[in-house]
Amino acid sequence: MNKINPTTNFVGKICCTILMLLCAFPALASKAGDANKEVSGIVVDKKTKDPLIGVNVAIWKDGKIETGVTTDFDGAFHIETSLSSFEVQFSYMGYKDLKFDSKSHDLSGMHVELEEDANTLGDVVVTGFVTKNKETFTGSVTEMSGLELRQVSGTNIIGAISALTPGMAMVQNTSQGSNPNHTPELVLRGMSSFSNSGQQVNQPTIILDGTEISMQDLYDLDINEIEKITVLKDASATALYGSKAANGVIVITRKPIQESTVRVQYNFTGNLQFPVLGDYNVLNASEKLEYERLAGLYDAQGAINSETGLPLQYEYDELYNQRYKLIRAGLDSDWLSQPARTALSNDHSLRVYGGASNLRYELTGRFGDTRGVMKDDYRKRHSLGFKLDYFAGPITISNRTTYQEVSVKNTPYGSFSQYVGMNPYDRIYNEDGSINTDLAWDLDNPLYEASLGSFSTSGTRTLSNSSDFRWDISKMFLLTGHFNVSSDMGENDIFTSPKSLAYKDVTDLSKKGQYTKGVSRGVSYNGNLVGTFNKFFKDESLVSLSTGWEINYANSSSETIQAIGFFNDHLSYIGNAVSYPASGKPYGTQAETADVGAFVTGNVSWRNRYFADGTWRTTGSSQFGENNRFGHFWSGGLGWNILNESFMEDAKKHFDILKLRTSTGYTGKVSFSPFQAMTMYQYNNSYEYKNGIGAIPITIGNVDLTWERTMNYNVGFDLSMFDRRLNFTADAYIRNTTDLLLDKSFAPSTGVTSAKSNLGELQNKGFEYQLDGYVIRNNDFYWRLASTGYLNRNKITKIDKALEEINKENQANASLSLTPLPQYAEGESVSALKLVRSAGIDPATGKEVYIKRDGTLTFEYDPADRVLIGDTEPAYTGTFSTNVFWKGFSVYALFSYRLGAWVYNTTRVSKVEGSDPQYNADQRVFDDRWTKPGDVAFYKDIADSSRPEQTTRFAEKEYTLSLGSLNVSYEFDEKTCKSMHVRNLRTGINFTDILRLSSVKIERGTDYLYSQGFEFYLNVTL
Amino acid sequence: MKKFRYIVYLVVALFATTSCEDFLNIIPEGQAKRDELLATSEGIEEAMYGVYAQLRSNTLYGQELHFQTLEVMAHNLYCDGNTSITALGKFEYDNTSVKSLFESIWTAMYKNISNANSVLDAPLVANAKEFPYTIYRGEALGLRAFMHFDLVRLFAEQYTQNANAAGIPYATEFSLKTPEFESLKENYEHILADLHEADSLLADEEKYEGEGNYMLDRQIHFNKYAVKATLARVYLTMGNKAEAAKYAKEVIDGGKYYLKEMTEVKNDLAGVLSKKECIFGIYYAGFYTQVYEKLHKTTTRYSLDLRADYKDIYNKDHLGNDYRLSSYFTTVTLGSDQVDRLCKLTDIYELDNNAASRPLDLILGINMIRIPEMYYIMAEVLLDEDPAQALAYYNEVRTHRGLEPLKTEAVDENTGELVDRPLTLQHINEERYKEYFGEGQLYFNMKRLNQSIVSYDNVTTYEASKKIYVIPIPDIEIENRY
Lengths: 1022, 482
Description:
heterodimer
């Protein structure tokens, strides 16, 4: 038993406590007096009956605290007081307060049961290393429970996270559509790096139960296992992660095992998806023929056939008539639907758990088979897990083993864009059922490739084991540790059939067909150890200090070999190959990284009114150059809990939370390989020199290379009113990134022509808000509305000459790219759209008129006339949702909107104007194309099929509203469940992507279609 | 709470491990850190082998600076079917493919110079006082000077035409600092300084021959005589005849490399280093593949044809049997025609698919410097002051090739009397032509003497001027200086 004497000196409190701990002698009560009254007993959790450690037990008299203690790790407390009439108050984070009057209760040997306060359960912030008190936390975080995630989508975790987190955006990839084998990309609070040769440098760090996982691992995670996700957004929250913190951190916690008898939970999710073909408006057979005629494809222009001596026009006319006849007979092939299908996917997961007070176990299993809307592809996920929790007094140890397998098959039907270009007057199949390979204009039938034995598959297997321990040394000291080992293996196989049209010019049979086999493996381990000191004072002040140490190591390698020469489509085993390709050799890559780090983080609050946060972190990484081996990161924050101010006394009954907070901090990011910071020599067999072997430097290392640093400033406001019926959070931030890594060009006499250097500065400024409220809230019925919004502005604050080199290169390559390549300039955004202004089509000639920089008109296109039009990133993004619940029924709808992004409409560029008349085109090709002098048209001469220059004619502003989820579910009430002998039963339907309204009409899903459909699910607990 | 105290100590101890360098020091396989590599003599040797190996790349002496670019510019070889080679032959230096060719030569040479600088900057080599570090330093300095000298010969004006001409950057540091452009005079000063230092460092080279693998086969290293031969070349190009003669004489009198006999002329240079005459060569086991594609095969787009009248100079003053004519050239069948080809560099064993029977003491590779050049230097230098000696040196090479010594008297056609016909520079240049055809030195000789070039088809004569002899500095160098 320890007694704390009330002192007003704050620092003194800390010193006192430390002294107390080091000496084992209990302090004596200083109050002498009359017959002491004893207040004692134990405090337990009402539901689980576990003793609660660290509960504040305070003696109040006349509104003032007289004395107080906290419970020990048996939940016991003991106070002696000489007062005669007083109140005893029990308060604990996450639980409802309880007060007892000394007169009405017997205060010795009490058995107090505290009830969890469901509304304040979220009052801790899980940072992955430590748990912080949300009330006194200065950082900006967004939390979502597993249930909220599943309301948005039962299958798409990443989409759900980005829909529920203001500030988080999923990178729009309109070519990949709904491809189940494409892992999406996330960006938090704007891009802070230039895209660097394919590396995903803007991706947040993802932590699952203390171990970092990749975006793909998150994509394959079973959504039913998730208890809660916390997204840490500003430096206060992320500085703990040091060099991984710059892009934000997503912390995922899986469900804990509750003490109970054996429970079985089964979840089933079925998903029916339909391909979205509505964005495509191609011509039908007769329209296509007419378009070809107008484009002059049947106009021989007087040419003569050299062999027969007759005008070619006869042949063209005959061709035209042939096709015309077929079309009149009704031929109109539907190519678009050929590679598409209605896909049914299913996902089953089973969780068996139970246990007593000292030992709990959990067995999980999952089987998922996801199909996409293009034929013959799949993504199968299987996993098995086993977890054990062991409780021995103050120590908790748990161990989890997981085995996971993912098998992938890619669609053999290829890119969807092939089908869009096919001519509708061509038959798809011949009369005998075989695939028609004799198409107009010598085009290739993409269905032919799909019918061959070619395939592309891959798979990975991961085995992982984590151990965690937690030791509540005393009510103030806590030690936690985590250790994880993972091993994974993968393979991929790609077989191209010898009958493929890729070999149509190859005559040598032993060179047709190819098999590429790759294998990969990796091992990683990580561990951390964290000690925490928490002290709650009876006046609700708090001191919390944590210090921790972390180690990470990962090693991976992959090898690929190729073999050619397959005589038969079916002999697709690599052992049947004839040889290696000429001058082919095996190819392999290796990567190894290691880092260690340590951090100290503290949180201090005074009377729950003013508080401060501070974090300092150091990381040493094998990726940092030798001169800068260790990086130091820090953050600090201040907050003001306005609610607890004296002037808020009257308003207090309306408000639950009223908090103002600010934070600032310094985070970094590593985006270069070690040999770019130090000179490394590379050996190679080709450097052999008769009596020895040579080695040459890979490049001249830049010893001054440092990581990219971001300075973050955040101001936030939290509001909660009317017993949490109305909640509002707003954040405004500025992020300045310096020392951006770019390839700088050097004059060759230096010895290298380019080397990575730290150049350039970027700034992101933005604002996020989250608002939700209950319009009506009863026991049986509630109606909740919510809205989130987010805007981010990006600006290059300093540019270096090297960036101008990139601009020059992009300018030179402009004709090769369909969309405009970026042109970086100081003061403009990284995603700025710069185009030459267009004055439309000249009615006299049908040619485009351009507006020069100085305003004059010209027919000449000059890329130097480009001006800033807008940004390809939206001006405003957000969601709003409505949720209605009545006696178990729940209806939830989530809308998202994107406003103000400029889109360069590539469909109009390549399918309306720059379309090749041999291929099919967009419907709009007929409207508004110039045909003769005097026409006032929007598009160029229909006979001109050259690709138009990049001008404002095709730039459109996007305003999109989509209904992402419409979820109807029903949770059976207790009585019905009991009669069915189950503990809990939930079922529902979730309609996904059912509505999309956009001001820009552009083809979406160019390589892989988008889809819409519905998920139906069933959750049973036995 | 004693338990807590121990925990504090544990955490603090763990903090201390944040400074464990070894754990964080990860080096991928097949690589080595420069500081570690260049701290041992084995490492330095490997780095030096790397520098040599890079010299044999196609952009440098494996093709362009040997039998392709330089010979096309000298109009010894041509290729009608190839537009970039044709443009090169017309000295169209602003043609896109010609520009990109010289850009890659410039870039590759400077990259290798920086590899040499990497070795020279290593502490053990920078402060070399004894064997083997003196050898490494000597070779590296010599190579650096050699590479800069060839760049000067390509991209700068001829010194004797314009002593105040602009030069090229002289790179002496291994760092990301870009070296400044210098005047031609300063370039030569640097080149000579490096070569002289190399000369003194390698002075006692012979003492250590055979000690360790690095000291075997000195021909494939930039050895003492290579340094002297290069000095002779440099001085001759600068116009300093006395010094040129001094060093050429040292090479000849050194006795280590000497002229071969006439019967040994055949196949002496066929893809291998001349056993007797090669002062400096590059080991290159894959040379045959390159040579065969370009000089021997019969496709027209890539193979190089001989100028139509190549034989004329061989047939001039033809007294005796010039073994070179029969050894260097051959005829192959192209369709239904017989075509002449340069087979001087083609490895005969590979050609016959008989690599196994090649004698083991033959070293495969490229001949960079051979001794006949030293004789020609002596002859040219002594032409005015000691004609008899000059003639002696000149004839020395002639007789070793099967020809009769030059007749210094001839019957004048008009008068019918015997007139003196002394040795002239033209005679020496003609000998050079016959000896060094296809080896990439003739263009430089013509530039040095500011001669006009007659095109391979005898149609155009390119007058001697900066327009043909000075290749413009590549844009990539000038644009990236900021």
